[in-house]
Amino acid sequence: MIKLGVLLSGSGSNLQAIIDAIVEGRLNASIELVVSSRPDAFGLERAQKAGIPTVALTRETYIDPLAADALICEELQKVNVDYLVMAGYMRMVRSPLLQAFPNRIINIHPALLPAFPGAHGIADAFAAGVKVTGVTVHFASEIYDTGPIIAQRAIEVREDDTLESLEQRIHSVEHQLYPEVLQLIAQGRVSIREDGVVRIEEEAT
Fold this sequence. Notes:
The chain is of the alpha/beta class. The protein has one domain (2-200): Rossmann fold (3-Layer(aba) Sandwich). It is built from six helices and nine strands, in the order βαβαβαβαβαββαββ. The chain has helices at 13-23, 42-49, 65-78, 95-100, 121-128, 163-186, and strands at residues 2-8, 29-36, 54-56, 83-86, 105-109, 132-139, 149-156, 190-192, 198-200. The strands form two sheets. It has a seven-stranded mixed sheet, sandwiched between helices. A two-stranded antiparallel ribbon has the order 8-9. The longest helix is centred in the last third of the chain and has 24 residues, at 163-186.
């Protein structure tokens, strides 16, 4: 079993998907702490309902982003977290966290990276008129929306899609893919090669 810390900034729907996967036995993990960059994030309520300890930061905390990340790191280390999961966390992780959790910080992005990075991946892909977009799970790095890609899942953009319908389908895929990737990690099947490419071992039979 792996111990997870979760970073979020908003509704926490991916947190809920991870909680549900643990409860249903699809993910061999525990969530030790949820940290929110906003004290009013609904994700905190989801965590508290599930009995998960929480830490809520404020905008003032992030005036010094390195100090903020050092504080987060201290809280995570208190509960011996193995991996840090970004679930709609709208802040960049910086050196204190990256050094404390090397290749152990995971992010999900609603586009097929390296295409459409940034905070508006779904809207940017929709506006560009692409026929295929998707979801990416990757290890975080010091540059926003980069880092070794663990898994991607493509989603067709339908002719009758609206931005809202596309968002709904992408979020649905996120909620499936994120727990699946975390389970691969829990099984010890994910590693990074010397060339920086992620390798996923076949499941033992």
